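Students often ask why we bother predicting the structure of a whole assembly rather than each chain alone. The short answer is interfaces. A chain on its own may look different once its partners are present, and contacts between molecules only exist in the joint model. In this exercise we take two input lines together and write out one structure for the complete complex. Read the inputs first and try to guess which parts will touch.
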Amino acid sequence: MAGTAASIDLGAGRQPTASPPKRPNLGDFLAPRSIAIVGASADPATIRGRLLDYLLQRNYAGALYLVSPSQPEIRGRKTYPTLASIGEPIDLVLIATRADVTLSIVEECARIGARFAICYSSGFAEAGEEGEAAQRRLGEIAAETGLRICGPNTAGFFNVRDEIPATFARNVDESRAAIASGRTGAGTVTVVAQSGGLGYAMSDRCRAEHGLDVNFVISTGNEADLGTLDFVDHVIEDEGTKAILLLVEALKDTARLPVIAAHALAAGKPIIVSKFGRTEAGSRAINSHAGRLTGSSDAYDAVFARYGLLSTDDENEMADLAAAFSLFPLPQGNRVAIMTTSGGAGVWMADACEAAGLAVPILDDATQAELAKYVPSYGATHNPVDLTAQVTVNPLGGAAESPLVASLAALHDSDGIDAVILIANMSDGNVLAREQAGLSALAARLRKPVLLYSHAPASPKSLQLAQEIGLSVFASTRRVARTLGAMVRYAETRGRIAAATQPAPAPALPAADVAALAGGLSEYKAKALLARHGLQGGSDVLAHSVDDAVAAARVIAAPVALKIQSDAIQHKTEVGGVALGLEGDDAVRAAYEQMMASVTAKRPDAALDGILVQKMLKPGTEFALGIVRDPDFGAMMMAGLGGVYIEVLKDVMIEPLPVRRDTALAMLKRLQAWPVLDGARGRAPLDVEALTAAMEQLSLLVEGSGDAVREIDLNPVFVYPKGEGIAIADALVVGRDEPSIEGAH
Amino acid sequence: MAGTAASIDLGAGRQPTASPPKRPNLGDFLAPRSIAIVGASADPATIRGRLLDYLLQRNYAGALYLVSPSQPEIRGRKTYPTLASIGEPIDLVLIATRADVTLSIVEECARIGARFAICYSSGFAEAGEEGEAAQRRLGEIAAETGLRICGPNTAGFFNVRDEIPATFARNVDESRAAIASGRTGAGTVTVVAQSGGLGYAMSDRCRAEHGLDVNFVISTGNEADLGTLDFVDHVIEDEGTKAILLLVEALKDTARLPVIAAHALAAGKPIIVSKFGRTEAGSRAINSHAGRLTGSSDAYDAVFARYGLLSTDDENEMADLAAAFSLFPLPQGNRVAIMTTSGGAGVWMADACEAAGLAVPILDDATQAELAKYVPSYGATHNPVDLTAQVTVNPLGGAAESPLVASLAALHDSDGIDAVILIANMSDGNVLAREQAGLSALAARLRKPVLLYSHAPASPKSLQLAQEIGLSVFASTRRVARTLGAMVRYAETRGRIAAATQPAPAPALPAADVAALAGGLSEYKAKALLARHGLQGGSDVLAHSVDDAVAAARVIAAPVALKIQSDAIQHKTEVGGVALGLEGDDAVRAAYEQMMASVTAKRPDAALDGILVQKMLKPGTEFALGIVRDPDFGAMMMAGLGGVYIEVLKDVMIEPLPVRRDTALAMLKRLQAWPVLDGARGRAPLDVEALTAAMEQLSLLVEGSGDAVREIDLNPVFVYPKGEGIAIADALVVGRDEPSIEGAH
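Now the answer. The structure tokens for the assembled complex follow.
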């Protein structure tokens, strides 16, 4: 692969240059026409026995072969001593044996031409070096033979729609109540999880909290071969799936993410993801249960935001979003109307909405006039609309229309409103039962989200009625508001990404520059290279003698700095290699001679290029700009105001490459310190245009270099008032072939 | 009242100097021996009818009198035409009439010597000026006659423990399932709510989510007389109540809060509060449903934090905290052990715990060795402890002890752990049913919190079993972690407040100073007064002539500033009244003359005190320190680093007076910018000692002045490196008798 940084650029629509992974037909994996179970058992108390039991419970309609060298029959079915003895084509082999025999069975699968295998056993990468080697071997077998493998250390999958359970997860047991009832039978959600326990739990949660049916639950386990993104790529095309829930610890093949995410956005299939292992304790736990190391959570968050995945960290929020995207059209804006039968609950909801980035505007006169027909005089029509409890207890006598439904419809139909929240006491089913017909009619013509909330906990009857109506009850004030907030953000992101022009690929750097970058550069050379690529610093002259230096300082005609230049010297100040603020021939001469003496004494080994004479730059607002390399996502740009902003407030953004001016501006606007750049509160606005241009140049440079750059640190970059540009005061480039350097210069 | 600022000082234990409100015996209100219903009705579909219906449902054991001028009997009971005709002592009158006759009934209540009345009707302060006047009159009747009034615009109360419903809230209807079952019958929670709808809903929620029984639900409505704090004050003494839940829009009698909060902390009764109406839309809604204006949410948050109330903004969190405080001892620290049957769920929980400020430490060797007896080899013992799903499916065959219970007990008994979380799949009741005996034995000897969580949604059977065991299932990862985080914070707060010495009351200022402050002060006078009270600025001399000024500048022997001094001039720069950085006689002379000419031309009306000659202060880190006055809580100190910290980052803390050095230091440490003061990352630490001393002096000054000060703004205060002190560069004092000033100086 040509380096992750360049690969991320695939978002631009190019094909990968390195051998692309074959795209497996996972439809046949999830709905196999034939299944063999190796290590089948008649005892449903065991994992192996449950695999068979669940397939029998669901009357699996394909060919089912049981492989057992010792038992002639299992649960009245004939067995085969080996896979090879079956003699029929097999789509999917379920391997329920111990880790130490798994490899040989997988090899047999490949030999007989089986298309897919699931390795359930643990004892691989999470169990130490030997397991890691075995897991690597699984991946190799897949690559060599074309057999595609799910696992090891997986709980398999449940194709709920076709009722095909290839899993031992007890959640799919038909005898369990959790699985019993669904909204309509037509599933809308697919769950892909690296943790089987969490994946099946999430599926249950979607059903329990919102009556949602799940199409597929897929546990990917240690991902020796098939990974999360393979399954995501597949289910984007699944017509019934309206939302994809991901539970991930660390993604592999991250270079594919931009393309897959763009595909999902275009298809209108939101990907709702929780990335865990964000903390030290969490990562420790992942390493012991899945043998996986997780990359920086900040990088994951930046990449998810960039490519339009919805990032969450809460199982309730995932279920709520799954429901919202399953049931509602996207909101066109952030203006919410709240209708309530409890004044207090309306207040609380208004607070929560504003905290979630939503607006709760005063309704226009026409809408208020319409509402006034139904709202009692001691209620309120502005927003929140207070119907008062009276309306639900004693609907206006003899009214042809239900005031609740009529008011709700008025809000739904108002052009000034993008989403509606109805709050009522649904602690029994009375309200929804009485309003069922009216609400169902509204739900059938929904043009924007309409979320229900009950301030007293909703009764099971109310939950059921809401589902029959085609709506859903959300379980708390905060959850209602956060769900709508996330929908609004998703709609905005989708619009933004759809409107964005794809960045043109960066031109490749000249081979000499790439070689120089990979080997690492002294400050002088680094700045010269940066300047050649549009990243200007001050006026720098490399002096090879004291007279050179004095002459250069005279030309500059301002205070200068001297800096020793040597590829061998990273920490200049430690060897006496920096002198600042020198004015006049004598000062320059003295500093030059002292520097040469000090450096040659301390580093007699170092080959010196000379001493750099720099104009002391006019101080500006300090900015730090750089490239860092994330283990999972490759090169990422880092930007933030210098000094206390970065050091004390950690106010810094990262963003995957490519970065162009629009992306750069968006990064800057996300900084807490954006008002400093923007000139808030009477300050002079700074030259943001020059800064974003530099950010684009930096991105192009790194993209164009392949993976030659390990790290770049431009710090400080002085940003001057608008129109006056920027100046790179100090530059550090760490090449691919150099060790990573901490705290250099 | 002697000013809210001074009154807040009652936290120090003094009695209020103004007439203290009588402390009503609310025990007799909540458990009256006799009740009269004015406007009783036989129709349970009406509010009036429900009051009677619910009392009959619960077989109210006291004397019950129905007052109706028109109906001779209601539901087979004799009625009385008037309250006076009853002729027996009446503890509580329920007034279910319309707003316009409520006043006359209340007057009759007072006349016949009834002790308490509840006014249910709306149509008071929330309904405009006339209603506001009527509500004020209710308060006056209470003050004049001793009749204590709850409401108007209230849903009354439900004394659940004694089964006395004085409410029309349908939540108390015996026919409704929500009220049917409780944990043990012995309630542990009291709910006090300004919104009846939310109060009763919260009571239902405590029961629905954790099987908690509530002792009292009290809806205070518009609080013409009895307010939230009256009821809090009462229920602190209620033995059964272990947690008090408050739902408030705005508190009245805020001066009592410190004493009541201290009482609650001493009694170990956590007050869990949600303050709503935090946003513009929320406040708008409150004003229309309760006629209440809400103060600054920041002030509420600061006051709640100061006095140890637990602030939340979520109904789930309130119910979770109610359960945690009802069931568990307080944790002694923040170290959590997580035990899980799903690796992924353990990772997620570890992330959530660290995000909530908890530690998930690696367990000590002894505990890990003990756990190793029960944890399979492919599990983990470090923390999170991964028991793996196998343990719950097939408990180790023939083991005398359940591995789950034995492991949990080992964690509970570890000295290195302060709280334990058990994660298992409780989507059926099997796990808890099998472990019931062992878990019950552990629950009976609980020394620290043990929270249960099910990654698949817990079944009703599991919830029920958990309650029987004496534990509870918390509904999400985040909710588990946030509950424990809040418990840890509460325990810390309690310890901190218990350990703190009560601040000595501030000595009263000399009468002349109080008079000067109240009238407002020019900068010169303000700085002189501040200096007399230990708040030093630079060396200032007031010059009355140009020669005075030149002489003063010579003595200072450094660059000086000139500033016009006049009580009539607030915006000095606008009249040409400020000149900075003057050096040498000529410069001082020219600036003086120009200033006099400019000021007298622009403000011929203003009486001038002279021109202040100030040494130009050595620049230091800019700090802003001040006093602001909150409508609900009176004088509060405001502190933050100047410049971008306040203007861009809004990094500023407020704190109610009194502020002493320890409180001041705690304020500074809460600033985002604290590392700047503290000398993080190689910076020189600043003189925090001098700064906190100044904050204490400022607090003493304001406390000692009664309510003479409206606002003080010391900005900038230069803070110098440790040992070098601070200097107040600019000072603005706005007195009680002056208009509030925006953006002065």
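Check your guess against this: The first strand of chain B starts at residue 34 and ends at 38.
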